Predict the structure.
Amino acid sequence: MIKAILIISLGFLTFAIFATIYRLVKGPSASDRVQALDVLGINIISGVAIFSVFLRNTGFFEVILLIGILSFVGTIAFARFIERGVVIERRK
Amino acid sequence: MSDVNNPIEVVELLAVISILVGTIFSFLSAVGLIRLPDVYSRAHAASKSSTMGVLFILVGTFLFFIMEGTFSIRLFLGIFFVFLTAPISAHVIMRSAYRSKVPLAPQSVQDDLKGIIEIEGEREQ
């Protein structure tokens, strides 16, 4: 029962990731693609959580925290690059 | 299928159903990401319901492993961090999109931010 529900939810998550990849490939502006990458990171976090329930293994929680932090930092860096042209400004 | 009378089994089933609800939310947000017309409405769909979905999934995982007998502070920190940062990153992306003049959808009727940005630009000059 639990395994069946988990497999169904992995199927939904796969559809979500494919839709996000469609937007990542097609998206007309750069902001679309950055947004799609952010959502892709969040979906990967969900996938790791579902797999850790599926395997009944608690060793993947560091991966969840790490992907969350890296996705956030990458998104902020991309947004600053789109807005100002530089990621880290130099003070004069 | 195991016996439903055992309370641990019931709570594990609830946790797994919460995971299913979360993935359905993620799926709906991805449908919004495909179908909506411009960047801003797509970000609206993607950031809100995707954050909601990942919260349902992580809380379900947390509940499942509490029933297994392990309380993981790392997973709790992950839930807190994702809940805190997903709206912020959506805000920053949309701010940069507006500043780099990504156009709105043609059927949108009102743009309140335009006048404010023009006033701000005049003040800086």
Summary: Chain B touches chain A through 57 residues (CB under 8 Å). The mean pLDDT of chain B is 86. The two ends of chain B are 71 Å apart (CA to CA). Chain B has four helices and no strands.
